[in-house]
Design goal:
The protein is built from three helices and eight strands; from the N terminus they run αβββββββαβα. It has 262 residues and is an alpha/beta fold. It has a five-stranded mixed barrel. A hairpin with a 5-residue loop joins strand 4 and strand 5. Helix 1 packs antiparallel against helix 3. It is elongated, with a radius of gyration of 35 Å. The two termini are 66 Å apart.
């Protein structure tokens, strides 16, 4: 039994370690994916996402280019963004893009330590940058009437920007003059890649952990059955021993109850 216990422990340990290895590979692929495409040549925005499209899984961090017109009056700030260890705000200005019907693309122009920050000058412009999906997690907006957001959620921009919105936002790369007075937001500032990048490795990791749980269940079930069998055997042995030591067991012999015929 000790050998079987050791085999069960080794099987569970192997499943846990293999699962951890696959999850680490999943995380590594996610990081590599963001780094791989950060320096790629920009592609037209319309080839990655349309105005009414859901954000594509392979569009995270992809460099794109777009032509439109700044709408500085609809600029918002996103709080809680860090730069060189200091906390501040992202300055987000919509860019009206009319390539396939007009819709606004939120553009992170730069970072500011205070709410009093410059905005891009109105007018046409061609921009390049890194495409990102809207942020999903974060605290609620305590004051929906102001221009400061806790997170860059596309849904929160709907009541602050006129017209349609793209299903993601752009972190500005060029032109640099559009961020005059603001610190540049670099690829290192980009949010983590999506969960579904290298999903196969993640699923393999979960599968190995499931195998480990199954091995633990089999070990527990086998141990329980062995204990019940041993207890049943011990109980049967005790009964036989008791009968051999006390054959009458305090019971009356049935022959004594037969009346005499004499």
């Amino acid at each position: 039994m000790l050998l079987l216990h050791a085999a069960g422990i080794l099987a569970i340990l192997a499943a846990v370690l293999l699962g951890r290895w696959q999850v680490d590979a999943w995380q590594m692929h996610r990081e590599d994916r963001a780094a791989e495409i950060a320096d790629d040549a920009p592609v037209p925005l319309r080839t990655v996402i349309g105005a009414d499209d859901a954000f594509p899984a392979d569009g995270v961090g992809r460099p794109v280019s777009a032509t439109g017109e700044w709408r500085p009056d609809e600029t918002v700030l996103v709080a809680g963004k860090e730069h060189d260890g200091a906390s501040g705000f992202w300055v987000v200005t919509p860019l009206s893009v009319c390539e396939e019907g007009c819709a606004s693309l939120p553009v992170v122009v730069g970072w500011s330590p205070t709410e009093d920050s410059p905005r891009p000058e109105p007018g046409p412009v061609e921009v390049t940058g890194w495409l990102q999906p809207g942020e999903s997690a974060g605290p609620p907006d305590d004051d929906p009437a102001d221009a400061v957001l806790p997170t860059l959620r596309i849904a929160d921009l709907l009541q602050r920007v006129e017209g349609d919105l793209y299903g993601g936002y752009l972190i500005l790369r060029t032109p640099a003059e559009a961020r005059a007075g603001l610190a540049a937001v670099t690829p290192e500032s980009l949010p983590d890649p999506p969960t579904f990048t290298a999903l196969r490795n993640l699923l393999y990791g979960i599968e190995w952990w499931f195998f480990g749980l199954f091995a633990a269940f089999l070990w527990w079930r086998w141990s329980r059955d062995e204990l019940e069998r041993a207890r049943a055997s011990a109980s049967s042995t005790d009964d036989v021993r008791s009968l051999s030591e006390h054959p009458d067991d305090g019971r009356e012999d049935p022959a004594e109850r037969i009346p005499s015929t004499s």
